[in-house]
Hints:
By secondary structure, the protein is of the alpha/beta class. It is built from ten helices and eleven strands. The chain has a six-stranded mixed beta sheet. Strands 7-6-8-5-9 form a five-stranded mixed beta sheet. The chain is elongated and about 60 Å long.
Amino acid sequence: MRLTxxxxxxxxxxVGLLAxxxxxxxxxPSPSPVASSRPSAEPITLLVSAAxxxxxxxxxxxxxFESANPAIQVNYNFAASGSLQQxxxxxxxxxxxxxxxSEQMDALQEKNLIVKETRRDLLTNSLALxxxxxxxxxxxxxxHLTNPAINRISVGEPRSVPAGQYxxxxxxxxxxxDQLRPKFVYGNSVRNVLGTVESGNADAGVVYTTDAQISHQxxxxxxxxxxxxxxxxxxxxxxxxxxxxxxxxxxxxxLTSQEAQAVFSRHGFGTRE
Length: 273
């Protein structure tokens, strides 16, 4: 059919009108849809400050916890309990504190820096006398340290290292502290004490039984009777300034589970349950 000039004008006007209204022809491709997926949330990072003697056990437990709680990533700060206490007092971004003695936790509690309701005693330990694996010294009890052949005894610095505090209490109870003081070589953590004995830079050292157990370079020659010093307990508590109290609670619950307590027991710790 032939279109007259008038009809051509009408058709062109209609096409222009449709274009102005944004109508697309069937063959015009549609724009690609905009992706609406949101990135997955980053895991919560939980910083746990823990006594150096806990390092091996906690690092063994970490994969189990994070596998069961993928939304929580745990980072650790291992050091002497006194040093960790000072870091928290100075505002360190810590969620949980596990001390090797009550004294450091008591100090934080007095300053309202922990959540009192979350505090509990998690583990126990004991003191061991260790010597280098190849030592020829005949040491079988702590009193033998007074022997003139013993020149260097590695112990924790008592002002910051609970193992050193317990050692001084024990030596005082045995009545030999003043005799031994000139022989002391102080370490800034119980692991530092252990390393000093392992390297042969000390004739003997006082560490936790759990530390003596993990080293193949020392021998445990004596264990201190529990009545010679303050009970060795490891209190745990959430830090008041923590931004992730629920994650801290989840981790604490895990550490008190039967699975975690079995690992602690295998490392030589006593449990409080």
